[in-house]
Amino acid sequence: GAGVSQSPSNKVTEKGKDVELRCDPISGHTALYWYRQSLGQGLEFLIYFQGNSAPDKSGLPSDRFSAERTGGSVSTLTIQRTQQEDSAVYLCASSPGPNYGYTFGSGTRLTVV
Amino acid sequence: QKEVEQNSGPLSVPEGAIASLNCTYSDRVSQSFFWYRQYSGKSPELIMSIYSNGDKEDGRFTAQLNKASQYVSLLIRDSQPSDSATYLCAVNMDGGFKTIFGAGTRLFVKA
Fold first, then answer.
1. What values do phi and psi take at B10, rounded to 5?
2. How far apart (Å, rounded) are the C-alpha atoms in residues B54 and A79?
3. A5-45: pLDDT as tens digits
4. Beta carbons of A52 and A72 less than 8 angstroms apart
5. Contact (Cβ atoms closer than 8 angstroms) between residue A79 and residue A64
6. Are the Cβ atoms of B44 and A48 closer than 8 angstroms?
7. Which of A48, B3, B11, B70 could anchor a disulfide with A33, C-beta 3.0 to 4.6 Å?
8. Sequence-distant (≥ 6) Cβ neighbours of residue B36 within 8 angstroms
9. Among B63, B42, B60, B41, which Cα is nearest to B52's?
């Protein structure tokens, strides 16, 4: 597609449930990133994937968070046993490679009740 | 802890004025610098990238970089109410693979 596609756009889940967030990057972009943005806050780095290299998971806030990227394209961010503090907008971005700017998707707004 | 610092604002300027947004960063070896614009409720949008010391102009936007002072700025000439948004400074670190974002400066352009 022409842009970065994220789904769902909104997700309301009960505390303790697992959720999966999906990101489809721009075709040909080798780098894919996940960020989190809480209300009124800045962007918090979570994880990035670059080609076939091992992902940098240094920003994941706890072991309840995991992500994978299949076939060098679509990525899924999974949050297990969701907590209320996980409520935020989860943004996915892709770029052609290092030192390029990002194209962001429209985000997934996650609300844990 | 590698950091990117911005004045949170809000910065308020009248329509037609020059808006000046500033950013400092901590990682001396950073090579790539970006400005993103984020409207309320929307995702960030890349508006400028700069890699070398000096000025880079694109329409009404000018990015300025001073690596010795670890300082990046964005000038918006002839500011319009549609420029009202949060502007995020972003710096690539760790060999270009990771971008650290500043918390953003809120800009209001008054008609």
1. -75, 150
2. 43
3. 999 999 999 999 999 999 999 999 999 999 999 988 889 99
4. yes
5. yes
6. no
7. A48
8. A101, B44, B45, B46, B47, B87, B88, B90, B101
9. B63
Specify the 3-state DSSP secondary structure of B6. Answer: strand
Cβ–Cβ under 8 Å, residues B69 and B88? no
Q: Does the pLDDT of residue A1 top 70, yes or no?
A: no
- In the structure encoding, which two tokens stand for residue A61, read together? 């806030």
Looking only at the bridges linking them, the beta strands covering B105-110 and B11-14 are parallel
Contacts A35 to B, Cβ<8 Å: 101
Going by C-beta distance under 8 Å and a sequence separation of 6 or more, which residues neighbour residue B90? A101, B4, B33, B34, B35, B36, B99, B100, B101, B102
Task: Give tens-digit pLDDT for B46-87.
Answer: 999 999 999 999 999 999 999 999 999 999 999 999 999 999
Inter-chain CB proximity B101 and A43 less than 8 Å: yes
DSSP A108: E
Cβ contact B97–A98 (<8 Å): yes
For residue A103, give how far its alpha carbon lies from the nearest alpha carbon of chain B (Å). Answer: 7
On whether the CB atoms of residues B15 and B81 are closer than 8 A, the answer is: yes
